[in-house]
Amino acid sequence: MWPQHYSARLQAWADLRDRCTHPPLAQALSDVDAWWQQTPWQPYYLHWDDRDHWPTPWELLSDNVYCDLARALGIVYTVSMLERDDIETVELADTDQGNLVLVNQGKYILNWHTSDQLNIPSKQFTINQRLDRRAIHHLTDR
């Protein structure tokens, strides 16, 4: 169940990151994806054209409004903050199948479907635009 209060969401998010430090990467990524998929959903909260004004991770949790892009952004923030040696790349991708998170050059794909999020052949979608975690990292410094 998704925490109703901001302080509980912050604690749950910190607990998630702690839990995802040591298990195999596929399990950690699956846990991150599953956690963000339980958010309350609302269409059209964030837009790619307004990315200079996207919320920080803390603002995202405070606002508590999650469209497909907001969930993907939350996943990128979380995966980027895990500081695991086996995570080489993290990208946020706007595709014809929605907003996806590509980890390790697309070996792992998150925010696809709640029950089928890893190891999807990239030929199943077309990427319109993408941002790597370095392009989004400045939002965590605000």
3D structure, described in words:
- This protein is α+β, with helices and mostly antiparallel strands and 142 residues long.
- It has a single domain (6-141), classed as C8orf32 fold, CATH 3.10.620.30.
- Helix content is 37%, strand content 15%.
- It has five helices and four strands, in the order H-H-H-H-E-E-E-E-H.
- It has helices at 6-19, 25-37, 57-63, 68-80, 133-137, and strands at 90-95, 98-103, 108-110, 127-132.
- Strands 3-2-1-4 form a four-stranded antiparallel beta sheet.
- A hairpin with a 2-residue loop joins strand 1 and strand 2.
- The longest helix is centred in the N-terminal third of the chain and has 14 residues, at 6-19.
- It is globular, with a radius of gyration of 14 Å.
Structure in a nutshell:
This protein has 142 residues and is of the alpha+beta class.
- Low-confidence stretches are none
Quaternary status of these chains? single chain
| Count of strand segments | 4
The ordered H/E elements are HHHHEEEEH
Question: Helix count?
Answer: 5
Which terms would index this structure?
single chain, 4-stranded antiparallel β-sheet, 15% strand, alpha+beta, C8orf32 fold, 142 residues, globular, 5 helices
SSE topology:
Elements: H1 6-19, H2 25-37, H3 57-63, H4 68-80, E1 90-95, E2 98-103, E3 108-110, E4 127-132, H5 133-137
Helix pairs in contact: 2-4
